Model the fold of this input.
Amino acid sequence: MLRLKGNPEEKNFLREVIQRSGQNLLECLQCGKCSGSCPITSDTVPGPRRLIAMILSGMKQQSLNDPTWWYCVSCGSCASRCPVEINMYQVATTLCEMAEETGIKPSEPAIHLFEEVFLKSVRKNGRVQELKAVMEFNLRSFTPFKDAVKGAKLIVKGAIKPKDMVARAKSDPEILRIFERVERMRHGE
Ligand code: SF4
Ligand code: SF4
Done:
């Protein structure tokens, strides 16, 4: 799918996304295999195929405001099924950086808080302790009872265990090394 029409700003946007992400979006066939396997694509989240179509069309504002890349969980399903090996995670990371550079706020306001709580739990315990993480997130986002009914049902079914609240998992040295490496990369070391 080759889209090189459009005004200079639109073409620059497409060129910048391709250069920064290292993904040649011009090769996209719009086959939809990526969105078909993407766990976040829904009625409200357009998904990778439609996001790529917007980028190819030079729709900068719409692309930077699209919820797809905020919700991307880097699972790699899209890349593993894509016939031209486009890795959407790299595109999502690029759009995230570009949105932050232009001062665009996340479509999901609490997403940075979620990221912080999630990573803190992984760093401390070597994995996510779901119950603790959800409770901390809900408390800090001022919605303490948001998942109360759902949580009670999961406890009754045994899907989550209250004893996890007091269980102390061990930090994993390898995971701590990954965090340290990311910190060093952030500081340009
Ligand atoms: S699977 Fe690849 S080629 Fe197909 S729409 Fe997605 S990114 Fe484009
Ligand atoms: S890496 Fe992101 S865009 Fe690709 S399938 Fe996973 S969640 Fe969807």
User: Anything to note?
Assistant: Residues 37-40, 48, 72-78, 88-89, 92 surround iron/sulfur cluster (ligand 2) (CB under 6 Å). Residues 107 and 166 are 34 Å apart (CA to CA). Residues 111-125 form the longest helix (15 residues).
